[in-house]
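Checklist before submission:
- one chain only
- standard amino acids only
- sequence pasted in full

Submission:
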Amino acid sequence: MGLLDGLLGNASEVDISTVAEELSPILSQTETVVQAYKMIRDLFVFTDKRLIFIDKQGVTGRKVDYHSIPYRAITQVKVETAGHFDMDCDLKIWVSGQSHPLETKLKSGLAQEVQKTLATMMFA
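Returned file contents:
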């Protein structure tokens, strides 16, 4: 992830083996990490069973909020790609039972990859 992307908060792909090791205490025995993206300290992780939003809070990042969403609960996905002068894309995910979507920003080159990963996992 470039410095500018980190400062802007745009997500970029991270090594899945590192993420799998970090999440091993919370993953089921049969669950594997498929893809992971990082925004400064926060992560969103695609496993073969669910999507996990990880919000590291506080100065040290020791307090962590895990938001786990089974793929079957995702009702809509919207990706707005970057235009000529935009440096980022918007990702919105609606979850069953919630009126507002979960929102994040992605690097412009990741929009298609994230859409493909979501489609693959939701329709498997």
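Reviewer check: The CA atoms of residues 13 and 37 lie 4 Å apart.
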